[in-house]
Amino acid sequence: MRQDDVKTTVQQQFGRHAESYVTSATHAKGEDLPLLVEWLKPRGDWVVLDVATGGGHVAKTLAPHCRFVVATDLTAPMLEAAANAHREAGLTNLVYVQADAEQLPFLSESFDAVCCRIAAHHFPDPDAFVREASRVLRPGGMFLLIDNVVPDEPELAEIVNRVEKLRDISHVRCLSVAEWRELLQKYGLLERKDRLRQKRFLFSEWVARTSSSKEQEEAVERCLLDAPQAMKAYWNLDVRDGRVQSHQIDEWMVLCQKGGK
């Protein structure tokens, strides 16, 4: 699929489910949100960029600690849903820009920090995204990435991405930690801190969030149940009476600093 077609699919998928990402407990109440503040230690004069803001949870978390936050997303309905949630929360120091993460419409060295949370697996060109994030950061600025990652084993990684794509047509590819580290180093983003954690999901809620039919949900469940034993162990599947109850995936959180200061 061409990159333009992928991005159109992303816009259509997230446009349909915009409100659910604002209210999703997985996105709105993740334990990584408090860590954003703890790790970044934002200052009151900072200008922060939140790439692919989705439901606006990163922007909402950081806005009270910064001068202002620029929230971007490829999908206009997502930005509108996030902006509405921010207004209801009484936040006023945010601006919203519809933008492609791989072609950010900002001058170089414009931001004190750039964040992207649980979104990069939808980007067709992660290399371009990291290049752009580094470009718009000021020297010494902070880059914080959170995303689902796959195992280093190619066979297991391929199965994870196949299941994610079956569940969500806007999914492109989760990278491994090693792949992300190669990109970060390539664009002068020096790793300062990281954390790998396992996130557990109730299967029914996880699969329903992006599905368009019961047939799609059943196909995803069948993939999990029919997976090789090594894959089932990686997911730590909880299966009862032949039905998947829950599973887990890996999430990587990394804080980097742009060289040059």
Automatic annotation (TrEMBL):
Keywords, comma-separated and alphabetical: Methyltransferase, Transferase
Pfam family, any one: Methyltransf_11
Cross-referenced CDD domains: AdoMet_MTases (cd02440)
Keyword NAD carried by entry: no
Gene Ontology BP annotations: methylation
Domain Thioredoxin: 12-168
GO MF term set: S-adenosylmethionine-dependent methyltransferase activity
Protein name: SAM-dependent methyltransferase
